[in-house]
Write a structure and sequence with these properties.
mainly alpha
Amino acid sequence: MTKRIFRSILGVSLAVLLASLVLIVGVLHGYFQDRVSGELESLAEYIAHGVEENGTDYLTEDLPTGLPGWMRTAPCSSTTGRTRRRWGTTPSGRRSGRR
């Protein structure tokens, strides 16, 4: 009798664990899929803007570190026209205290 109760409790707990994992993974997958597609859209806008301004040579430009040119000049927002901060570093390459 106790063996039967133990198996039932174990079965129910495993079923609840599995259902919880499926639900959590499903929600996280949707969240990250939306986030990645949003980032991809913004990067496509940056690239389109660079190609409009500089032609297709914009796609072959490389930075000294090997990064593509659009990463150097990508604006923060299409409405402000300001460029992104340089990762909070000083000209010597050290991190600045200001954020």
